[in-house]
Amino acid sequence: VTGGQDVLAWLGETIEEVAGVPAEELRPETAIADLGMDSLSMTELAVTAQDKTGAVLSDDDLRGMVTVGDVIRGILEAGREAAGSPVS
Amino acid sequence: MLSGASGVTAISGDWARDLPVRIAAPAAIDPASVIGRVQARRMDRCEQFAVAAAREAWSDAGSPGVDPFRLGVAVTSGIGGLRSVLSAHDALREKGWSRISPFTVPMMMPNGAAGWISMELGARAGAHALVSACASGTETIGYGIDMIRSGRADVVVAGGTEAVITRLAVAGFAVMRALSTRNGQPEKASRPFDKGRDGFVLGEGAGIVVLESEAHAVARGARVYAVAAGAGYSADAYHLSRGLPDGAGIRHAITSALADAGVTARQVVHVNAHATSTTEGDPLEAAGIAAALGGADGVVVTSTKSVTGHLLGGAGAVEAVAAVKAVAERTAPPTANLEDLDESVTLDIADRPRALDPRGDGPAAVLSNSFGFGGGNAATVWCEYDSAGTEAPRRA
Protein backbone atom coordinates (compact mmCIF):
# COMPACT_ATOMS: atom_id res chain seq x y z
CA VAL A 1 0.00 0.00 0.00
CA THR A 2 1.43 3.38 -0.96
CA GLY A 3 2.40 5.36 2.13
CA GLY A 4 1.95 2.23 4.23
CA GLN A 5 5.53 2.30 5.53
CA ASP A 6 5.09 5.81 6.96
CA VAL A 7 1.87 4.86 8.67
CA LEU A 8 3.35 1.63 9.95
CA ALA A 9 6.17 3.51 11.66
CA TRP A 10 4.04 5.71 13.91
CA LEU A 11 1.21 3.20 14.14
CA GLY A 12 3.68 0.65 15.51
CA GLU A 13 4.80 3.14 18.15
CA THR A 14 1.22 3.99 19.06
CA ILE A 15 0.16 0.37 19.36
CA GLU A 16 3.22 -0.36 21.46
CA GLU A 17 2.23 2.48 23.78
CA VAL A 18 -1.47 1.62 23.95
CA ALA A 19 -1.29 -2.18 23.97
CA GLY A 20 2.27 -2.91 25.06
CA VAL A 21 2.94 -5.12 22.05
CA PRO A 22 6.35 -4.46 20.42
CA ALA A 23 6.05 -2.89 16.98
CA GLU A 24 8.25 -5.55 15.37
CA GLU A 25 5.73 -8.23 16.31
CA LEU A 26 2.93 -6.58 14.32
CA ARG A 27 1.88 -8.08 10.98
CA PRO A 28 -0.85 -6.86 8.62
CA GLU A 29 -2.88 -9.95 9.50
CA THR A 30 -2.52 -9.46 13.28
CA ALA A 31 -6.00 -9.19 14.82
CA ILE A 32 -6.68 -6.04 16.83
CA ALA A 33 -8.54 -8.10 19.43
CA ASP A 34 -5.45 -10.25 19.94
CA LEU A 35 -3.52 -7.11 20.91
CA GLY A 36 -5.90 -6.58 23.82
CA MET A 37 -7.15 -3.35 22.26
CA ASP A 38 -10.73 -2.39 23.06
CA SER A 39 -12.95 0.35 21.67
CA LEU A 40 -11.36 3.00 23.92
CA SER A 41 -7.88 2.02 22.74
CA MET A 42 -9.10 2.35 19.15
CA THR A 43 -10.30 5.89 19.82
CA GLU A 44 -6.83 6.75 21.15
CA LEU A 45 -5.42 5.40 17.92
CA ALA A 46 -7.90 7.49 15.93
CA VAL A 47 -6.82 10.64 17.76
CA THR A 48 -3.17 9.89 16.93
CA ALA A 49 -4.08 9.23 13.29
CA GLN A 50 -5.80 12.61 13.08
CA ASP A 51 -2.73 14.28 14.60
CA LYS A 52 -0.36 12.59 12.15
CA THR A 53 -2.31 12.58 8.90
CA GLY A 54 -5.47 14.63 9.34
CA ALA A 55 -7.43 11.43 8.78
CA VAL A 56 -10.80 11.48 10.52
CA LEU A 57 -11.97 7.98 11.37
CA SER A 58 -15.64 7.51 12.17
CA ASP A 59 -17.05 5.03 14.68
CA ASP A 60 -18.10 2.86 11.73
CA ASP A 61 -14.56 3.01 10.31
CA LEU A 62 -13.13 1.89 13.67
CA ARG A 63 -15.68 -0.88 14.13
CA GLY A 64 -14.87 -2.24 10.68
CA MET A 65 -11.17 -2.66 11.48
CA VAL A 66 -10.34 -6.24 12.40
CA THR A 67 -6.64 -6.48 11.61
CA VAL A 68 -3.61 -4.17 11.67
CA GLY A 69 -3.79 -4.15 7.85
CA ASP A 70 -7.38 -2.85 8.06
CA VAL A 71 -6.19 -0.04 10.31
CA ILE A 72 -3.43 0.99 7.90
CA ARG A 73 -5.77 0.91 4.91
CA GLY A 74 -8.44 2.84 6.81
CA ILE A 75 -6.01 5.54 7.85
CA LEU A 76 -4.59 5.90 4.35
CA GLU A 77 -8.04 6.17 2.78
CA ALA A 78 -9.28 8.66 5.36
CA GLY A 79 -6.03 10.60 5.00
CA ARG A 80 -6.53 10.91 1.24
CA GLU A 81 -10.10 12.07 1.81
CA ALA A 82 -8.86 14.66 4.27
CA ALA A 83 -6.29 15.84 1.72
CA GLY A 84 -9.04 16.18 -0.88
CA SER A 85 -7.68 13.66 -3.35
CA PRO A 86 -10.05 11.12 -4.87
CA VAL A 87 -9.99 7.64 -3.38
CA SER A 88 -9.21 5.10 -6.06
CA MET B 1 5.16 3.42 60.94
CA LEU B 2 6.51 2.00 64.21
CA SER B 3 9.77 3.90 63.70
CA GLY B 4 7.88 7.18 63.58
CA ALA B 5 9.93 8.26 60.56
CA SER B 6 8.18 11.09 58.72
CA GLY B 7 7.36 10.75 55.02
CA VAL B 8 6.99 14.50 54.62
CA THR B 9 9.38 16.24 52.23
CA ALA B 10 9.73 19.44 50.23
CA ILE B 11 7.69 19.37 47.01
CA SER B 12 10.24 18.92 44.26
CA GLY B 13 8.22 20.33 41.35
CA ASP B 14 8.33 23.98 40.33
CA TRP B 15 4.56 24.15 40.58
CA ALA B 16 4.63 24.87 44.31
CA ARG B 17 7.21 27.66 44.13
CA ASP B 18 4.79 30.54 44.65
CA LEU B 19 2.46 28.70 47.06
CA PRO B 20 2.53 29.28 50.83
CA VAL B 21 2.76 25.48 51.25
CA ARG B 22 5.68 23.69 49.62
CA ILE B 23 5.68 20.39 51.53
CA ALA B 24 3.81 17.10 51.13
CA ALA B 25 4.09 13.37 51.85
CA PRO B 26 4.44 11.68 48.45
CA ALA B 27 4.34 7.89 48.16
CA ALA B 28 7.70 6.14 48.28
CA ILE B 29 6.93 4.17 45.13
CA ASP B 30 5.59 4.98 41.68
CA PRO B 31 2.43 2.87 41.46
CA ALA B 32 2.58 2.82 37.65
CA SER B 33 5.76 0.74 37.85
CA VAL B 34 3.89 -1.86 39.92
CA ILE B 35 0.77 -1.91 37.73
CA GLY B 36 2.50 -2.21 34.38
CA ARG B 37 2.77 0.54 31.78
CA VAL B 38 -0.07 -0.41 29.48
CA GLN B 39 -2.69 -0.79 32.21
CA ALA B 40 -1.34 2.17 34.22
CA ARG B 41 -1.92 4.66 31.41
CA ARG B 42 -5.64 3.94 31.60
CA MET B 43 -5.76 4.70 35.32
CA ASP B 44 -5.50 7.81 37.42
CA ARG B 45 -2.70 7.68 39.98
CA CYS B 46 -5.26 7.12 42.77
CA GLU B 47 -6.58 4.08 40.90
CA GLN B 48 -3.02 2.81 40.43
CA PHE B 49 -2.39 3.05 44.18
CA ALA B 50 -5.62 1.20 44.94
CA VAL B 51 -4.98 -1.62 42.48
CA ALA B 52 -1.39 -2.02 43.69
CA ALA B 53 -2.56 -2.15 47.34
CA ALA B 54 -5.41 -4.54 46.48
CA ARG B 55 -2.97 -6.93 44.81
CA GLU B 56 -0.77 -6.92 47.91
CA ALA B 57 -3.70 -7.39 50.28
CA TRP B 58 -5.23 -10.15 48.15
CA SER B 59 -1.96 -12.01 47.96
CA ASP B 60 -1.39 -11.58 51.70
CA ALA B 61 -4.88 -13.02 52.29
CA GLY B 62 -3.82 -16.14 50.39
CA SER B 63 -5.75 -15.25 47.21
CA PRO B 64 -8.91 -16.98 48.48
CA GLY B 65 -11.07 -18.87 46.05
CA VAL B 66 -14.50 -17.24 46.13
CA ASP B 67 -17.62 -17.51 43.99
CA PRO B 68 -17.50 -14.25 41.93
CA PHE B 69 -21.01 -13.33 43.02
CA ARG B 70 -19.96 -13.73 46.68
CA LEU B 71 -16.90 -11.48 46.30
CA GLY B 72 -17.39 -7.72 46.68
CA VAL B 73 -15.38 -4.53 46.46
CA ALA B 74 -15.83 -1.41 48.60
CA VAL B 75 -13.02 0.97 47.69
CA THR B 76 -13.31 4.72 47.42
CA SER B 77 -11.58 8.01 46.93
CA GLY B 78 -12.54 11.26 48.63
CA ILE B 79 -11.93 13.39 45.56
CA GLY B 80 -11.41 11.10 42.56
CA GLY B 81 -8.89 11.39 39.76
CA LEU B 82 -8.00 15.04 40.14
CA ARG B 83 -4.68 14.74 38.31
CA SER B 84 -6.48 13.27 35.31
CA VAL B 85 -9.09 16.03 35.38
CA LEU B 86 -6.34 18.64 35.37
CA SER B 87 -4.31 17.10 32.57
CA ALA B 88 -7.44 16.52 30.47
CA HIS B 89 -8.42 20.13 30.99
CA ASP B 90 -4.97 21.26 29.84
CA ALA B 91 -5.30 19.13 26.69
CA LEU B 92 -8.84 20.42 26.14
CA ARG B 93 -7.72 24.03 26.20
CA GLU B 94 -4.51 23.56 24.28
CA LYS B 95 -5.50 21.01 21.62
CA GLY B 96 -9.29 20.83 21.52
CA TRP B 97 -12.01 18.49 22.65
CA SER B 98 -11.17 15.55 20.43
CA ARG B 99 -7.59 15.30 21.72
CA ILE B 100 -8.36 14.44 25.34
CA SER B 101 -7.86 10.86 26.46
CA PRO B 102 -10.87 8.55 26.01
CA PHE B 103 -10.08 7.39 29.55
CA THR B 104 -10.70 10.86 31.01
CA VAL B 105 -14.10 10.05 32.49
CA PRO B 106 -13.22 6.64 33.99
CA MET B 107 -10.05 8.22 35.41
CA MET B 108 -11.90 11.04 37.17
CA MET B 109 -14.73 9.15 38.85
CA PRO B 110 -14.28 8.37 42.57
CA ASN B 111 -15.50 4.78 42.09
CA GLY B 112 -12.91 4.12 39.36
CA ALA B 113 -10.65 2.23 41.75
CA ALA B 114 -13.53 -0.01 42.85
CA GLY B 115 -14.26 -0.82 39.21
CA TRP B 116 -10.66 -1.66 38.37
CA ILE B 117 -10.27 -3.89 41.43
CA SER B 118 -13.53 -5.70 40.70
CA MET B 119 -12.26 -6.45 37.19
CA GLU B 120 -8.87 -7.51 38.45
CA LEU B 121 -10.36 -9.98 40.96
CA GLY B 122 -13.54 -10.88 39.08
CA ALA B 123 -15.61 -9.58 42.01
CA ARG B 124 -19.27 -9.51 41.03
CA ALA B 125 -21.16 -9.09 44.31
CA GLY B 126 -20.90 -5.29 43.97
CA ALA B 127 -18.30 -2.55 43.59
CA HIS B 128 -19.08 0.38 45.86
CA ALA B 129 -17.54 3.72 46.78
CA LEU B 130 -19.03 5.91 49.49
CA VAL B 131 -17.80 9.49 49.21
CA SER B 132 -17.61 11.66 52.32
CA ALA B 133 -14.37 13.62 51.95
CA CYS B 134 -11.85 12.53 54.59
CA ALA B 135 -14.27 10.05 56.16
CA SER B 136 -14.67 8.19 52.83
CA GLY B 137 -12.20 5.37 53.55
CA THR B 138 -13.69 4.56 56.95
CA GLU B 139 -17.30 4.80 55.77
CA THR B 140 -16.55 2.54 52.83
CA ILE B 141 -14.89 -0.07 55.02
CA GLY B 142 -17.98 0.13 57.23
CA TYR B 143 -20.07 -0.54 54.15
CA GLY B 144 -17.86 -3.53 53.36
CA ILE B 145 -18.47 -4.92 56.86
CA ASP B 146 -22.22 -4.52 56.27
CA MET B 147 -21.98 -6.38 52.95
CA ILE B 148 -20.69 -9.40 54.81
CA ARG B 149 -23.05 -9.10 57.78
CA SER B 150 -26.08 -8.78 55.54
CA GLY B 151 -25.09 -11.90 53.65
CA ARG B 152 -24.43 -10.18 50.32
CA ALA B 153 -20.83 -11.39 50.18
CA ASP B 154 -18.40 -13.80 51.82
CA VAL B 155 -15.32 -11.74 51.04
CA VAL B 156 -15.01 -7.99 50.46
CA VAL B 157 -11.92 -6.08 49.38
CA ALA B 158 -12.29 -2.74 51.16
CA GLY B 159 -10.39 0.50 51.50
CA GLY B 160 -9.63 3.91 50.10
CA THR B 161 -7.15 5.79 47.98
CA GLU B 162 -6.08 9.33 47.11
CA ALA B 163 -3.51 11.04 44.91
CA VAL B 164 -4.09 14.79 44.73
CA ILE B 165 -0.69 16.32 45.47
CA THR B 166 -1.27 18.96 42.81
CA ARG B 167 -1.11 22.72 42.56
CA LEU B 168 -4.91 22.95 42.68
CA ALA B 169 -5.41 20.78 45.78
CA VAL B 170 -2.51 22.33 47.70
CA ALA B 171 -3.76 25.81 46.82
CA GLY B 172 -7.33 24.83 47.67
CA PHE B 173 -6.47 23.59 51.16
CA ALA B 174 -3.91 26.37 51.68
CA VAL B 175 -6.45 29.07 50.96
CA MET B 176 -8.64 27.53 53.68
CA ARG B 177 -5.60 27.80 56.00
CA ALA B 178 -5.85 24.07 56.62
CA LEU B 179 -2.25 23.17 55.72
CA SER B 180 0.98 23.44 57.68
CA THR B 181 3.34 26.11 56.34
CA ARG B 182 6.37 24.75 58.16
CA ASN B 183 8.22 24.62 54.84
CA GLY B 184 11.67 24.83 56.41
CA GLN B 185 11.16 21.65 58.48
CA PRO B 186 9.06 19.22 56.44
CA GLU B 187 9.60 16.23 58.74
CA LYS B 188 8.39 18.30 61.71
CA ALA B 189 5.33 19.74 59.96
CA SER B 190 2.74 17.06 60.78
CA ARG B 191 2.51 17.18 64.59
CA PRO B 192 -0.96 16.13 65.81
CA PHE B 193 -1.81 17.08 69.41
CA ASP B 194 1.41 19.10 69.71
CA LYS B 195 1.15 22.74 70.76
CA GLY B 196 3.21 23.82 67.75
CA ARG B 197 0.87 22.27 65.13
CA ASP B 198 -0.25 24.60 62.37
CA GLY B 199 -2.21 22.47 59.90
CA PHE B 200 -2.08 19.17 58.07
CA VAL B 201 0.28 17.90 55.38
CA LEU B 202 -1.16 16.41 52.20
CA GLY B 203 -0.22 12.75 51.67
CA GLU B 204 -1.11 10.17 49.01
CA GLY B 205 -1.52 6.42 48.68
CA ALA B 206 -4.03 3.67 49.38
CA GLY B 207 -4.96 1.22 52.11
CA ILE B 208 -6.82 -2.03 51.45
CA VAL B 209 -8.10 -4.74 53.79
CA VAL B 210 -9.64 -8.09 52.91
CA LEU B 211 -12.79 -8.66 54.95
CA GLU B 212 -14.16 -12.16 55.20
CA SER B 213 -17.01 -13.87 57.01
CA GLU B 214 -15.83 -15.98 59.91
CA ALA B 215 -17.34 -19.12 58.40
CA HIS B 216 -15.54 -18.58 55.11
CA ALA B 217 -12.25 -17.73 56.80
CA VAL B 218 -12.38 -20.72 59.13
CA ALA B 219 -13.35 -23.10 56.33
CA ARG B 220 -10.25 -22.21 54.33
CA GLY B 221 -7.93 -21.95 57.34
CA ALA B 222 -7.24 -18.26 56.78
CA ARG B 223 -4.83 -16.34 58.97
CA VAL B 224 -6.96 -13.81 60.87
CA TYR B 225 -5.34 -10.52 61.91
CA ALA B 226 -8.36 -9.00 63.63
CA VAL B 227 -12.13 -9.00 63.84
CA ALA B 228 -13.81 -6.19 61.91
CA ALA B 229 -16.27 -5.79 64.74
CA GLY B 230 -18.34 -2.80 63.67
CA ALA B 231 -18.69 0.78 62.52
CA GLY B 232 -20.54 3.90 63.62
CA TYR B 233 -21.42 7.22 62.02
CA SER B 234 -22.76 10.67 62.68
CA ALA B 235 -23.17 14.01 60.93
CA ASP B 236 -22.37 17.30 62.66
CA ALA B 237 -25.07 19.25 60.79
CA TYR B 238 -23.16 22.34 61.81
CA HIS B 239 -20.57 23.67 59.32
CA LEU B 240 -19.15 22.34 56.07
CA SER B 241 -15.52 22.34 57.22
CA ARG B 242 -15.57 22.82 61.00
CA GLY B 243 -16.48 20.27 63.66
CA LEU B 244 -19.26 20.62 66.22
CA PRO B 245 -17.57 22.65 69.02
CA ASP B 246 -18.05 20.16 71.86
CA GLY B 247 -17.06 17.09 69.81
CA ALA B 248 -20.59 15.69 70.21
CA GLY B 249 -20.68 14.40 66.63
CA ILE B 250 -17.40 12.56 67.14
CA ARG B 251 -18.64 11.15 70.43
CA HIS B 252 -21.79 9.82 68.78
CA ALA B 253 -19.84 8.14 65.97
CA ILE B 254 -17.56 6.37 68.47
CA THR B 255 -20.40 5.38 70.80
CA SER B 256 -22.41 4.03 67.84
CA ALA B 257 -19.41 2.09 66.57
CA LEU B 258 -18.88 0.45 69.95
CA ALA B 259 -22.59 -0.41 70.20
CA ASP B 260 -22.55 -1.81 66.67
CA ALA B 261 -19.51 -3.92 67.56
CA GLY B 262 -20.95 -5.07 70.88
CA VAL B 263 -17.83 -3.75 72.58
CA THR B 264 -17.67 -1.78 75.83
CA ALA B 265 -15.56 1.35 76.30
CA ARG B 266 -13.48 -0.66 78.79
CA GLN B 267 -12.36 -3.01 76.02
CA VAL B 268 -10.82 -0.18 73.99
CA VAL B 269 -7.04 -0.17 74.43
CA HIS B 270 -6.01 2.03 71.52
CA VAL B 271 -7.40 4.71 69.23
CA ASN B 272 -5.93 5.49 65.85
CA ALA B 273 -7.12 9.07 65.87
CA HIS B 274 -8.15 11.12 62.87
CA ALA B 275 -6.08 14.01 64.31
CA THR B 276 -4.73 15.80 61.26
CA SER B 277 -2.55 18.36 63.06
CA THR B 278 -4.93 21.30 62.67
CA THR B 279 -5.28 23.73 65.55
CA GLU B 280 -9.06 23.32 65.81
CA GLY B 281 -9.58 19.68 64.93
CA ASP B 282 -7.25 17.81 67.26
CA PRO B 283 -8.64 19.10 70.59
CA LEU B 284 -12.20 18.51 69.36
CA GLU B 285 -11.40 14.89 68.67
CA ALA B 286 -9.60 14.55 72.00
CA ALA B 287 -12.74 15.82 73.75
CA GLY B 288 -14.95 13.47 71.72
CA ILE B 289 -12.77 10.44 72.50
CA ALA B 290 -12.62 11.26 76.22
CA ALA B 291 -16.39 11.73 76.35
CA ALA B 292 -17.16 8.54 74.43
CA LEU B 293 -14.77 6.36 76.41
CA GLY B 294 -15.56 7.82 79.83
CA GLY B 295 -12.22 9.53 80.41
CA ALA B 296 -10.10 7.15 78.33
CA ASP B 297 -7.66 6.29 81.15
CA GLY B 298 -5.37 3.52 79.96
CA VAL B 299 -6.24 4.07 76.28
CA VAL B 300 -3.20 4.69 74.07
CA VAL B 301 -3.99 7.23 71.36
CA THR B 302 -1.95 7.75 68.20
CA SER B 303 -2.20 9.80 65.04
CA THR B 304 -0.31 8.04 62.28
CA LYS B 305 -0.85 11.14 60.10
CA SER B 306 2.22 12.44 61.91
CA VAL B 307 4.25 10.25 59.56
CA THR B 308 1.97 9.63 56.56
CA GLY B 309 0.44 13.07 56.20
CA HIS B 310 -3.29 13.24 55.47
CA LEU B 311 -4.48 10.89 52.70
CA LEU B 312 -8.01 12.37 52.67
CA GLY B 313 -10.25 9.56 51.31
CA GLY B 314 -7.36 7.12 51.71
CA ALA B 315 -6.68 8.13 55.32
CA GLY B 316 -9.27 5.96 57.07
CA ALA B 317 -8.20 2.95 55.04
CA VAL B 318 -4.47 3.28 55.71
CA GLU B 319 -5.32 3.89 59.36
CA ALA B 320 -7.57 0.82 59.43
CA VAL B 321 -4.54 -1.19 58.31
CA ALA B 322 -2.53 0.43 61.13
CA ALA B 323 -5.33 -0.39 63.60
CA VAL B 324 -5.46 -4.01 62.44
CA LYS B 325 -1.68 -4.32 62.77
CA ALA B 326 -1.92 -2.76 66.24
CA VAL B 327 -4.43 -5.45 67.22
CA ALA B 328 -2.42 -8.27 65.68
CA GLU B 329 0.88 -7.18 67.20
CA ARG B 330 -0.54 -5.67 70.39
CA THR B 331 1.52 -2.58 69.73
CA ALA B 332 0.47 1.00 69.08
CA PRO B 333 2.57 3.01 66.63
CA PRO B 334 3.86 6.39 67.86
CA THR B 335 2.71 9.93 67.13
CA ALA B 336 5.77 11.61 65.68
CA ASN B 337 6.73 15.18 66.59
CA LEU B 338 4.88 15.16 69.88
CA GLU B 339 7.24 17.43 71.78
CA ASP B 340 4.88 19.66 73.71
CA LEU B 341 1.41 18.21 74.25
CA ASP B 342 -1.47 20.66 73.90
CA GLU B 343 -2.62 21.10 77.50
CA SER B 344 -6.29 20.89 76.55
CA VAL B 345 -5.66 17.26 75.51
CA THR B 346 -6.21 14.91 78.44
CA LEU B 347 -5.50 11.70 76.53
CA ASP B 348 -2.49 9.40 76.69
CA ILE B 349 -0.88 10.17 73.32
CA ALA B 350 1.86 7.68 72.38
CA ASP B 351 5.13 9.40 71.53
CA ARG B 352 6.88 6.04 71.11
CA PRO B 353 5.64 2.52 70.20
CA ARG B 354 3.57 1.19 73.08
CA ALA B 355 2.56 -2.31 74.13
CA LEU B 356 -1.21 -2.78 74.34
CA ASP B 357 -2.64 -4.85 77.18
CA PRO B 358 -6.28 -5.84 77.52
CA ARG B 359 -7.85 -3.75 80.29
CA GLY B 360 -11.43 -4.99 80.55
CA ASP B 361 -13.58 -8.03 80.03
CA GLY B 362 -13.64 -9.37 76.52
CA PRO B 363 -11.12 -9.08 73.68
CA ALA B 364 -9.01 -5.95 73.33
CA ALA B 365 -10.49 -3.46 70.85
CA VAL B 366 -8.95 -0.71 68.73
CA LEU B 367 -10.82 2.26 67.26
CA SER B 368 -10.05 4.03 64.00
CA ASN B 369 -11.64 7.48 63.58
CA SER B 370 -12.23 9.58 60.45
CA PHE B 371 -14.01 12.89 60.01
CA GLY B 372 -14.69 14.71 56.79
CA PHE B 373 -15.65 18.09 55.35
CA GLY B 374 -19.39 18.01 55.03
CA GLY B 375 -19.68 17.08 58.69
CA GLY B 376 -19.46 13.29 58.43
CA ASN B 377 -17.87 11.35 61.29
CA ALA B 378 -17.10 7.64 61.18
CA ALA B 379 -15.34 5.10 63.36
CA THR B 380 -14.54 1.43 62.94
CA VAL B 381 -13.81 -1.10 65.70
CA TRP B 382 -11.23 -3.86 65.36
CA CYS B 383 -10.90 -6.61 67.98
CA GLU B 384 -8.56 -9.41 68.82
CA TYR B 385 -9.78 -12.66 67.33
CA ASP B 386 -10.71 -15.44 69.67
CA SER B 387 -11.17 -18.56 67.56
CA ALA B 388 -13.63 -19.92 70.13
CA GLY B 389 -15.73 -16.76 69.90
CA THR B 390 -18.68 -16.04 67.70
CA GLU B 391 -17.91 -12.60 66.27
CA ALA B 392 -18.87 -11.66 62.73
CA PRO B 393 -16.46 -10.66 59.91
CA ARG B 394 -12.73 -10.89 59.91
CA ARG B 395 -9.33 -10.18 58.71
CA ALA B 396 -7.20 -7.76 56.79
What does the model show?
The complex is a heterodimer of chains A (88) and B (396). The longest helix of chain A is centred in the N-terminal third of the chain and has 16 residues. Chain A is built from four helices and no strands. The two termini of chain A are 12 Å apart. Chain A is mainly alpha-helical and 88 residues long. Chain B has 14 helices and 14 strands. Chain B is α/β, with parallel strands linked by helices and 396 residues long. The relative contact order of chain B is 0.18. The mean pLDDT of chain B is 95. The chains are: A mainly alpha (88), B alpha/beta (396). At the A-B interface, helix 1 and helix 2 of A face loops of B.
Q: Gap between N and C termini of chain B, in Å?
A: 17 Å
Oligomer: heterodimer
What is the number of strand segments of chain B? 14
Q: CA-to-CA gap between the ends of chain A?
A: 12 Å
> What is the 3D shape of chain B?
globular
Largest sheet of chain B: 6 strands, mixed
Helix content of chain B: 25-40%
Give helix and strand order of chain A, one letter per element, not per position.
Answer: HHHH
- Provide the residue-averaged pLDDT of chain B: 95
Structural class call of chain A reads mainly alpha
Given as residue ranges, the uncertain stretches of chain B (5+ residues, pLDDT < 50) are none
Structural class of chain B: alpha/beta
Which range does the strand content of chain B fall in? 15-25%
The dominant shape of chain A is globular
Spans of chain A with pLDDT under 50 lasting ≥5 residues?
A: none
Average of the residue pLDDT scores of chain A: 87
Biggest interface goes to:
A-B, 11 and 10 residues
